[in-house]
Amino acid sequence: MSILPYVDIGLALLVVGIASTTVAARDLFAAVVGYVAYGLLLAFVWIRLYAPDVALTEAAVGSGVTGVLLITAGKRLGALKNAVPDAQPALAFKLLAGALAALVAGALGAAILLLPDPPPSLAPEAAAAADGAGAGLGNPITAVLMSYRSVDTMLEKLVLILAVVGVWSVGSDKAWGSAPAELRQPKATAPMVFLAQTLAPVGVLIAIHIFWTGANAPGGAFQGGALLAAMWMVIMMAQLAKLPRIDAQWLRMALVSGPAVFLIFGLAGELTAGSFFAYPHSLAKPIILFIEAFMVLSIAAALPMLVAGPPSERPDQ
Amino acid sequence: MLLDVFSITAISAGAFFFFAGTVGLLRFPDSLTRLHALTKADNLGLGLVALGLLPRADSALSALKLIVIWALVLLSGASTAQLIGRALRRSRK
Predict the structure, then answer these.
(1) Cβ within 8 Å, pair A189-B76
(2) Is A71 on the interface with B (CB under 8 A)?
(3) What is the value of pTM for the model shown?
(4) Domain count, chain B
């Protein structure tokens, strides 16, 4: 007789409850807070599903970074304040939207219910393949990410860079090259400065630890990178460091370094190991950690740039 | 055995502070008093839970991690409480 099934049911009910309040919330800020709480609860769900790697990513990216992104976006939408529709949509339109939503939900439910038993899975194949080329990595998740499906992992980082370019391109032509607007407009307060000064050194250490330990235990480049990004954001919010100009050479180098190093080693695999994105067996672990280190850098640069938004002209320039 | 009693006592006390903090969060009249209730849950509640878990840690390292987690929550909890308090004072003026 275990209490865990009840915990699971309670957790599932909480997730559904928070999700409904988030969707139903009329206030923009309340909806974002609901979404952050939803992300944290999902992290617990992933832990209960024995997926601590996913849980870490969900907590760091799904609720942490996305939460900051949404709050900042909400603040910038100030003019639209809590988006109250002035005209009710027509009844036919409501019915159509409802029917469409029901259709999608029904299709998703049917897809889950109609899965063959046992469901088709690439997991054994992936584990076997990762065992080959990712030998020496104790964490099968990292082995799969960096060895079995390395092209996907590299393209994910490219998407992040594309997103940053997309955000930058929204800025006006005159502002191109300058820094994004400060994250907090007035002067930083003393508690914020204190928090940044004490938390950031510890946070950077933990981020590096999570990246390093990701080779053998839950953790990895994305989780470590997201934590590093969070520390950089805390420092910029406390105005201990200025936001970089978007035409800064070092920033652009940091952004592309992850996918670039990945691609170079991927191409080199053609010569040294016989196929694109293959690593020589004996050197697999050091090479994977080397590539991951640059991916951490890319992620740590990309996420705060997404939050900071497009470049803006400052009055003092 | 004695350690188990210690763990149960400390974790129960911690759970009590979480409960009291949550009741305060739901029942207190304004944001500043609600903030006051919340910090009890963060600081004392989590502190007691971490204390109760210490004897059950596998190694000295994981015990240290528990303490570090508590310290980090203390730091961020206290700082954000200050920030929220300041924001409230500014909006009241």
Answers:
(1) no
(2) no
(3) 0.83
(4) 1
